[in-house]
Amino acid sequence: MDLRTVTTSWAPRMLSVLRIVAALIFMAHGTQKILGFPASQMNPPLLSLLGAAGLLELIGGALLLIGLFSRPVAFLLSGQMAFAYFMAHAPKSPFPALNGGDAAILFCFVFLYIAFAGPGPWSLDAQRSRSAF
């Protein structure tokens, strides 16, 4: 088997791996804001902009982790990260490495990709579509 065959056959599975890893890292931001873990100085009220962001990160990240409603959730989270970048990071500096927004940009485009490419085969969405037929 040549390299092209291997990479082509594994591409859908690696899409699932990208979704799972991105969701786990993203959820860590939500657990920090909402659950205080890992411990941080942040403890926003739930009915604030940061609280809403934390809920989206926690719940949206969990849905992406298991691959349920992946496309709409990924699209919503992509928009959240674009909003976060332009609201919280861009005013500090035009350079992402200086304004701390590089993760927001990366999450934004990874989630946008997932919104269009789908969750991959290792997801509840894929399981649901297989059992629908």
From TrEMBL:
Keywords: Cell membrane, Membrane, Transmembrane, Transmembrane helix. The chain crosses the membrane at residues 46-66, 73-91, 103-124. This is DoxX family protein. Coiled coil: none annotated. InterPro entries: DoxX (IPR032808), DoxX-like_oxidoreductase (IPR051907). It is a multi-pass membrane protein. Its main location: membrane. Belongs to the DoxX family. It is found in: Cell membrane.
